[in-house]
Amino acid sequence: MPASFPVTRIHPLALAISMALVSLQSVAQTQPKEMSEVQVLGTAEEELKQAPGVSVITQEDLEKRPPANDLSELIRTMPGVNLTGNSSSGQYGNNRQIDLRGMGPENTLILIDGIPVSSRNSTRMGRSGERNTRGDSNWVPAEAIERIEVLRGPAAARYGSGAAGGVVNIITKPPTDTYAGSVTVYSLFPEHSAEGGSKRLGFNLSGPLADKLSFRLFGNIAKTEADSLALNQQFATGITPPAGREGVRNRDINALVRWALTEKQSIDFNVGMSRQGNIYAGDRAVSTDGTPEATQLAQAGAETNTLYRRTASVTHRGDWGAGHRSRLTFSYEGTDNTRFNEGLAGGPEGSIQAALQKSTSELNNYLVNGEYSMPSQLFGTSQVVTFGFDHRTEKLNDPYGNSQNDNTGQLVNAASRNGKAEASLTGLFAEDNIALTDKLTLTPGLRFDHHDNFGSNWSPSLNTSYQLTNEITLKGGIARAFKAPNLYQSNPNYLYFTMGQGCPVNYTNQGLGCYILGNADLNPETSINKEIGIAYTSRGWVSGLTYFHNYYNNKIAADMFDQGPPIVIGVPGSAAQAFQWFNAGKAIVQGLEGTLTVPLIGEQGNVLKLINNGTYMIENEQKSTGQPLSMIPRYTVNSTLDWTVNDKVSAQVYATFYGKQKARTLGQAGGAATGLALSDRGSYSLVGLSAGYKFSKSLSLRAGINNLFDKRLFRQNNSSGAGANTYNEPGRSLYVTMTASF
């Protein structure tokens, strides 16, 4: 670990003793006056949500700029957020997911009401680090959401494995004291017939069931059409053009019952069921044409993969008085992922096999976590201490993913293999929110995690906030974060095979291609995340500038050219090369985030205001290869002119400006990229507008135009042959949405 991270020099035992002393001191407090003074201080979690790298999308934001289907469409407009694949290969360029500060989607932890969501982990990971998945940002309809919290950098480290880039916490609407409900319809109409439109219908109901029982129920039916197979025809290098955006069908139902045991204690019972089926657009990982059968499926708009997700949770929340609060959650998440088998070998690698057989991977996750917060007075300072724990168990059964053999028995024993893999992770954490003075707040924390396959991990953190004046605040933080290897990377029975361009050029291809084998001896990925920022708030003016720096180490990769001499299996003349998933060298991610809100008309801009945020990436590079971690723009600027005409009418004009996106300079086989593979994607901008009208308290209408000036971008290949031109940007479209409520 770098010596530049001073927090890691704090001895864990010393910090644990300090936390224990705080706890004992809290118990010893008996003066009501002192305790009442402590209660004005929030918990460490509440304080961290005021950090520079935190953004909140409100219910009003969702109403004024509703996403067509996937929440990532709106989340991408926050500072530090882009949509990318999990590598810079561009293999599944249109299946982009939420990438926070350039750390890749697999380092973005998605939560729903604070509970981790990991259905994407049921999808097999290719050697580039990509999964053929939409991610986990499409399980909750927009109308069921109260707010979305986006935590980047050190503030996210408290959430454990998988949060090295950040956390997206989707908070659903709670039950209400009186009966209330709404129905929303939404339609999006693209101007170009080759691009897919969207339709959805959702409802929300809530209210009392009995004296101490209340409920909340939401449901959703949605469909986004796939792009036509001919959309990228001009860039076809074979029979089949590069794939456009696949479509998706959603069916969601979720019910929550809240039992108010007392005025200060409650239990939530939550169950949900979702179905997501794709509408195939012809995507394949590396093949130029795929299989003829796959092309026919794309032409027919067939459903080639289906996810069924089941959830259940029980949560107890308690307010024990004098600032003492607790939460305890038990939850279950199960995913059945059924899809047409994709080729595991060269040729149609990553493309649907000609036999059109299906297989199902089953993923079950079990979680118990909780925390207890209490105020304290220690050495004359007000503090709120939080102790917490969580235990996760993940079980995967993917028989097809482990069906690739090496034909020699040297790498895997076919007789003893099965598709089952399992891992458990237990975490303990303590954090303290300390008001050192009326202007200076310090928030230290320490998290300990033990993985049953990969040992122990300590994650210390330190965040601070100093109020320079009533309007200006200086904030900073530093934290260590980590991510355990996933169940494909760490499974020695998981074998991946590739031929042709997939084999490294610095070794002699001996005729039978290359294998990638799971590795049970991997180390977890780690990162040291730092940020420092300054914020100004006064009379509707809001501005801020934050510098962030992530030192990323032990990234798990399968870049064969970066490993060393391979194992050679078989006999001379008909042999193959065998590699493993391994821990690559360090990477550096650093950049700037800024915000600026300008009030133009009305008190603090409540009539007309200009809202801006921007991100500038200084560096995003894997040091051992010189390649980018993910394909993100040099800069991103989001601007919104928000006009509240009166209580009935509102309007917005919004624009996003993207900087140049650089292509990889190395091919997937390790040699220098040439030709179109070196093509950068130039800077571009997208402009839209929307307007809404409230006919009454119970009926509202909104309409808008996306991509007003019809700036279209096209995908130019299915893999690294496209350079940075790996995804489509759809053209102009019109949307209309209406909500009726009571």
Automatic annotation (TrEMBL):
Taxonomy, superkingdom: Bacteria
InterPro entries from the UniProt entry: Beta-barrel_TonB, Beta-barrel_TonB_sf, PirA/FepA/PfeA, Plug_dom, Plug_dom_sf, TonB-dep_rcpt-like, TonB_rcpt_CS, TonB_sidphr_rcpt
Positions of short motif TonB C-terminal box: 725-742
Coiled coil: none
Domain TonB-dependent receptor-like beta-barrel: 280-708
GO molecular function, one term: signaling receptor activity
GO terms, biological process: siderophore transmembrane transport
Ranges where the TonB-dependent receptor plug domain occurs: 53-167
Protein's cellular compartments: Cell outer membrane
Listed GO CC annotations: cell outer membrane
Keywords recorded for this protein, A-Z: Cell outer membrane, Ion transport, Iron, Iron transport, Membrane, Receptor, Signal, TonB box, Transmembrane, Transmembrane beta strand, Transport
Signal peptide: 1-28
Stored PANTHER family: TONB-DEPENDENT OUTER MEMBRANE RECEPTOR (PTHR30069), TONB-DEPENDENT SIDEROPHORE RECEPTOR PROTEIN (PTHR30069:SF8)
Similarity annotation: Belongs to the TonB-dependent receptor family.
Name of the protein in its database record: Ferric enterobactin receptor
